[in-house]
Amino acid sequence: MKNNKITSLFNIKYPIVQGGMVWVSGWKLAVAVSEAGGLGLIGAGSMYPDVLREHIRKAKQATDKPFGVNIPLLYPDVDKHMQIVKEEGVEIVFTSAGNPKIWTPFLKDAGIKVTHVVSSVKFALKAKDAGVDAIVAEGFEAGGHNGREETTTMVLIPAVRKALGEDFPLLAAGGIGTGRQMLAAMALGADGVQMGSRFVVAEESSAHENFKRAVLQVSEGDTVLTLKEITPVRLIKNAFYQEIEKIYRTHPDVEQLKRILGRGRAKKGIFEGDLEEGELEIGQVAMLFDEILPAKQIVENIMQEYQQALQKICVR
């Protein structure tokens, strides 16, 4: 797409970024999306440092297209991850879940393009002040970790665009998984989109087949935003979620919630396929998905629908 701030910034064909999701976004998915013309991201949040290094090297061997790494800033080994992306010559890093002022200068000094994920106008302005190259504004509809404000994408994107000004590169995320939704997000002021849930059910996703099939079964109202006291997360309602609801009726404190969450719940659900006791993170948009496809086909379908919707509006 010509004269698009996101395609120009990342040197990609389409302004579509695949979310760097824990236990989903390994090198195979990132490469497949990048080869299809989007920007694939390796999700470092579920990787030990040596595993991240391995994924980066495999991605470099498999493609000459741009790809990036998503690093949650609250991750315990964030310093090691940052050193690895610098050492391995990663050119694009998306950061999330933390203060961008801490690591943005380090990344920029290494010649790395930095994008930060936010859920509010307040944090968008802070990220801009920190010196990032682009911002992802993620609405309430999103899966995984989310914002406490519960601002929907429909409201968040124009608000962030107004605050940032017209020239700052902006990606929309949260509830976006089709070409029509991509067009709508761009009409609201975004320059492109980041999609997570849509690529969960890509063939190259490292999510367990049980989880992929569960995502395809999601209907309206089957997901809910919970655990705001720790880190807000949107989950499929299952036995683990019902356990959370039960403890909420006792007015728990943060430590009690942390104990019920425990360790490895997301791995158990998303990567190992335990649909009862695992944490099943997915966005509301999952209700629109009905098949598992190669990432290349997903990108092509999105762009085809985008163009068709755009032409239909122009005819009107």
Number of domains: 2
- Residues in β-strands, percent: 5-15%
Largest beta sheet: what is the strand line-up? Answer: 1-9-8-6-5-4-3-2
Provide mean pLDDT, rounded. 94
Shape: globular
How many strands? 11
CATH superfamily grouping of the largest domain:
Aldolase class I
Explain what this protein looks like in three dimensions.
The chain is of the alpha/beta class and 316 residues long. The chain has two domains: 5-207, Aldolase class I (TIM Barrel); 209-285, no CATH class. It has 14 helices and eleven strands. The protein has helices at 5-10, 27-35, 49-62, 78-87, 100-109, 121-130, 153-164, 179-187, 197-200, 209-216, 239-248, 254-261, 265-271, 295-315; strands at residues 16-18, 40-43, 67-72, 92-96, 113-118, 134-138, 144-145, 170-173, 192-195, 223-226, 233-236. Strands 1-9-8-6-5-4-3-2 form an eight-stranded parallel β-sheet. The two termini are 22 Å apart.
In short:
The protein has helices at 5-10, 27-35, 49-62, 78-87, 100-109, 121-130, 153-164, 179-187, 197-200, 209-216, 239-248, 254-261, 265-271, 295-315, and strands at 16-18, 40-43, 67-72, 92-96, 113-118, 134-138, 144-145, 170-173, 192-195, 223-226, 233-236.
Write the layout of secondary structure elements.
Blueprint: H1 5-10, E1 16-18, H2 27-35, E2 40-43, H3 49-62, E3 67-72, H4 78-87, E4 92-96, H5 100-109, E5 113-118, H6 121-130, E6 134-138, E7 144-145, H7 153-164, E8 170-173, H8 179-187, E9 192-195, H9 197-200, H10 209-216, E10 223-226, E11 233-236, H11 239-248, H12 254-261, H13 265-271, H14 295-315
Parallel strand pairs: 1-9, 2-3, 3-4, 4-5, 5-6, 6-8, 8-9
Antiparallel strand pairs: 7-11, 10-11
